[in-house]
Specification:
By secondary structure, the chain is of the alpha/beta class. 33% of the residues lie in helices and 27% in strands.
Length: 309
């Protein structure tokens, strides 16, 4: 998959089949749209393309600097590549881009510059200045500008009214609703990071942990989780705490991961942590012994979870 950072003056040469969006998380709804786009591209001899925005329009307009991305950009690219996307365009979202009317965005940029031949889009797609462009306008513009349009209805969770959306996933991550998050994603929500050297307190409890700092990604609810850990392409089982370690008056938000039946030195190594279930909220214990007792209970809950899957 080729990745290009472009502006509105970029000129493309190949005829494209495009889907547009930030695709944060690449949940079940996103996958359906992307799979449709890739299949239509192959049937119509077009170049399968995802057009995204950088920065996210939400950050541009609201000047938000909070980390709300569900997955890292490099992980997004990896998933897109695996789905068969051949062309990933990251459009610079600046004053010029945000000032384009809906008609200008389609006619001047998509059709004239990008050589759009087919557009695959979700039913709630809005575009152009002040988000005035919608599906009805797109239908009219597709006739005028001679490109095919396919509109995909929102995907809902089976036997539920819940729509697969990035906003729903963010809410569930922040509330600790990991099972719901994973259903919406169609896979376990995961984070990546390199192992930092800790203060050694956990090892004194005979409970060594790999400490990770979560950067550039949404933060889960503070508390204890059942997790799977991927290291060197091998999957392990474990338990993790995300928080500030209030028993020790900690200040920094850290993800502390205990890997069951594991004794390798992994400082500086990259781990992938898959969140599977929420056990409990983070607690400040009165003393070290009460913490040790609770940790043993948490481990029992985690191991019981794995026995039942």
């Amino acid at each position: 998959m080729k990745t290009r950072n472009i502006d509105i003056n970029y000129i493309n040469k190949k005829p494209l089949c495009i889907t547009i969006g930030n695709f944060d998380g690449i949940h079940l709804g996103h996958k359906y749209i992307i799979n449709t786009m890739v299949n239509e591209s192959r049937m119509n001899d077009l170049y399968p393309t995802v057009l995204s925005f950088n920065p996210h329009p939400r950050k541009y307009f609201k000047k938000i600097h909070d980390e709300f991305n569900i997955i890292l950009e490099k992980d997004k690219k990896e998933i897109l590549n695996g789905l068969g996307v051949e062309n990933f365009l990251r459009l610079n979202f600046d004053k010029k881009t945000s000032s384009l009317t809906a008609e200008e965005f389609v006619k001047k940029f998509l059709v004239k510059n990008l050589k759009l031949k087919m557009l695959i889009i979700g039913e709630n797609f809005q575009f152009g200045k002040d988000r005035k462009g919608n599906i009805n306008l797109l239908k009219k513009l597709s006739y005028k500008n001679n490109f095919s349009l396919k509109i995909i209805k929102s995907i809902k969770v089976k036997n539920s009214k819940t729509v697969c959306s990035s906003s729903n996933i963010r809410k569930n991550i922040e509330k600790g609703n990991i099972e719901k998050t994973n259903i919406l994603l169609g896979r376990p929500w995961a984070v990546k990071g390199r192992v930092l050297k800790g203060d050694g307190r956990a090892r004194k409890m005979n409970f060594p942990t790999a400490n990770l700092f979560l950067d550039k990604i949404i933060k889960p609810k503070k508390g204890v989780y059942v997790v799977s850990i991927i290291f060197n392409s091998k999957k392990y089982r474990g338990i993790a705490n995300f928080g500030r370690r209030p028993t020790f008056n900690g200040k920094k938000l850290l993800l502390e991961v205990n890997i069951f039946n594991f004794n390798k030195k992994i400082y500086g190594k990259e781990l992938t942590i898959q969140f599977l279930a929420f056990i409990r909220e983070e607690i400040k214990f009165k003393n070290f012994d009460k913490l040790k007792y609770q940790v043993k209970k948490d481990v029992k809950v985690a191991k019981s979870f794995f026995k039942n899957i």
